[in-house]
Amino acid sequence: MSEEIVIRQTTPPGITLPFSILLLIINLVATLYMVGLIWMVQIVHYPLFNGVGEGSFIAYQKRHQFLITLIVGPPMLIEAFSSLLLVWNPPTGVNNWMILAGVGLLLVIWISTAAIQVPCHNKLLRGFDQATHHRLVRSNWIRTAAWTARGGFVVWMLVHVLSASTGV
Q: Where are its TM segments located (predicted)?
């Protein structure tokens, strides 16, 4: 008796995601990028401002503001836009309060940026000032804490989505 071995080649099915889950993934990536970046800024980048030297600080600060905008602007806008879209398109398993808490933290970040950090940077464009630098470093903990909490919330939302989709 001979046995036949049948080998079937199958094409993996295309990955399809509901729009709400795609939004959550985009939001997660942008948020976690910003969490990593804000910790680097808080612990390394801002504290090193006082080592630049008075003679070159203004040029340094101008260059800093231009370059940092290139790496924080797009992910901050993606994070904000995807967060707002999640309010109207919540994934299955995610409670509205989770999304609203994340949006609330995002508001804290944006308000802190506009009301505290940007004015500090603008003042530093006139030259290094120890008090302004100290305020920048100290006040940036607001954004560091809020982004870290947001990162936790977005990961938690993903866990809820995965739990809902697997029935766990």
A: 20-45, 66-88, 94-116
